[in-house]
């Protein structure tokens, strides 16, 4: 059946996990957030390095990412914690979440007597929120309720030949059925952006896609580095890739063959169905964080080298086309499609295998990153710290 058992939220969205998200407004609140998370195993602490010394578009992006994280359907309730003197007012984060009907509470550390008192107060608030989650049960929903993020990290020659095309097959299946897929990593579109531009649903979308690539290149060139014709990642080079263009050609196949319907900024809420491109960096953790803030409930992540990273809220499914990596990093790899390279499996069969695993995860099966506690979270910075 083309369904999964999920949790319907008050705003109509459906989660595949039932987490209590404890969100830090700044690095100042991280210790309190972490301590509360340690005492409530069902909670997921959202820790980051921002919220201090940021301004303008950079601060706005951090706020947008935190709001989106709280809005993600995998978060059933949120506790927002601030020191109380940050540039980010906790109500700025909490109010949009509260308007969806999702339970949310706020704690300011300065208002309760400091760290120790805040941990105790926050623990009691978190317990109250956790009680509301215990009554929620899974119900059947179509797979098209899912927003799937696509990522590749620690790539090698097998990524473009096997695992990335497998994601493309799954992406096509979901999109053609009426679902939503996010293709990320603007830096890994460089040199292949024309392929996606030709597939865009309109000239406006095509122009926007080219613009985000040019903008990213300009930012990198401002630091004195030119990405075209080279490859900035030693891991990619060790994996057999020679240029950023070669990496990009392998990267774009993750998005399948359907038209690009929309191009969105980092951590923007994805509202359009179909294939959506999000402007994210190639940094795996920052890119996944942006897509989850955009609404992705699950991320499909290809890796030729065995990258172990995960996310606090969304299961990150690791897929490899490298048989050596599948064996050497068995504790971190979820799906092995290396049989494509030996001719024992074609891309359609690998896509069916991955789609079944995706459905299992949507139904509650834990991925390796969840089992090992890989909950990396980092918001992409676009400005200087002052």
Describe the structure.
With 386 residues, this protein is of the alpha/beta class. It has two domains: 115 residues, Rossmann fold (3-Layer(aba) Sandwich), CATH 3.40.50.360; 230 residues. The chain is built from 14 helices and 14 strands. The strands form three sheets. The chain has a seven-stranded parallel β-sheet with strand order 10-11-9-8-12-13-14, sandwiched between helices. A four-stranded parallel β-sheet has the order 4-3-5-6, with helices on both faces. A three-stranded antiparallel β-sheet has the order 2-1-7. Strand 1 and strand 2 form a beta hairpin. The longest helix has 21 residues. The radius of gyration is 20 Å and the shape is globular. The relative contact order is 0.16.
Topology:
Blueprint: E1 3-8, E2 14-15, E3 19-24, H1 30-39, E4 43-46, H2 56-71, E5 75-82, H3 90-98, E6 104-108, H4 115-133, E7 139-142, E8 147-152, H5 157-177, E9 180-183, H6 193-198, H7 203-221, H8 234-238, H9 244-252, E10 260-264, E11 274-278, H10 284-293, E12 298-302, E13 316-320, H11 323-328, E14 335-336, H12 339-342, H13 347-362, H14 368-371
Parallel strand pairs: 3-4, 3-5, 5-6, 8-9, 8-12, 9-11, 10-11, 12-13, 13-14
Antiparallel strand pairs: 1-2, 1-7
Helix pairs in contact: 1-4, 2-3, 2-10, 5-9, 5-13
Q: Class by helix and strand content?
A: alpha/beta
Strand order of the largest sheet: 10-11-9-8-12-13-14
Main sheet characteristics: 7 strands, parallel
How are helices and strands ordered from N to C? EEEHEHEHEHEEHEHHHHEEHEEHEHHH
Considering DSSP H and I runs of 4 or more, what fraction of the residues is helical? Answer: 25-40%
Poorly predicted runs are none
Q: How many strands in all?
A: 14
Q: What's the shape?
A: globular
Distance between the termini: 53 Å
Number of domains: 2
User: Counting H and I runs of at least 4 residues, what is the number of helices?
Assistant: 14
Average pLDDT level? 93
Strand residue content? 15-25%
């Amino acid at each position: 059946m083309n369904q999964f058992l999920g949790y319907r939220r008050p705003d109509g969205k459906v989660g595949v996990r039932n987490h209590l998200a404890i969100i830090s407004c700044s690095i100042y609140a991280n210790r309190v957030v972490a301590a509360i998370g340690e005492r409530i195993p069902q909670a997921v602490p959202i820790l980051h390095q921002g919220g201090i010394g940021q301004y303008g578009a950079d601060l706005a992006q951090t706020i947008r990412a935190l709001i989106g994280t709280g809005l993600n359907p995998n978060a059933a309730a949120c506790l927002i914690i601030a020191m109380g003197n940050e540039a980010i007012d906790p109500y700025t984060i909490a109010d949009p979440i509260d308007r969806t009907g999702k339970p949310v509470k706020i704690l300011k550390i300065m208002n309760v007597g400091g760290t120790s008192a805040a941990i105790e107060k926050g623990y009691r608030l978190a317990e109250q929120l956790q009680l509301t989650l215990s009554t929620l049960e899974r119900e059947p929903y179509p797979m098209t309720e899912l927003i799937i993020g696509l990522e590749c990290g620690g790539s090698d020659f097998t990524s473009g030949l096997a695992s990335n095309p497998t994601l493309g097959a799954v992406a096509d299946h979901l999109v053609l059925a009426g679902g939503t897929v996010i293709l990320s990593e603007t830096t890994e579109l460089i040199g292949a952006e024309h392929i996606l531009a030709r597939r865009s649903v309109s000239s406006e979308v095509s122009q926007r896609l080219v613009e985000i690539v040019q903008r990213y290149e300009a930012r990198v060139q401002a630091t004195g580095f030119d990405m075209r014709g080279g490859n900035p990642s030693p891991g990619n080079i060790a994996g057999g890739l020679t240029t950023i263009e070669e990496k990009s050609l392998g990267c774009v196949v993750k998005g399948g063959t359907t038209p690009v319907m929309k191009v969105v900024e980092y951590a923007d809420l994805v509202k359009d169905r179909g294939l959506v491109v999000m402007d994210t960096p190639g940094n795996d953790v920052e890119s996944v964080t942006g897509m989850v803030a955009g609404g992705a409930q699950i991320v499909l992540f290809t890796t030729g080298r065995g990258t172990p990273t995960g996310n606090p809220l969304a299961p990150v499914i690791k897929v490899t086309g490298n048989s050596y990596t599948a064996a050497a990093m068995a504790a971190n790899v979820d799906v092995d499609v290396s049989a494509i390279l030996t001719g024992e499996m074609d891309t359609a069969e690998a896509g069916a295998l991955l789609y079944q695993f995706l459905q299992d995860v949507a139904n509650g099966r834990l991925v390796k990153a969840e089992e090992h506690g890989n909950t990396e979270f980092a918001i992409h910075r676009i400005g200087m710290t002052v």
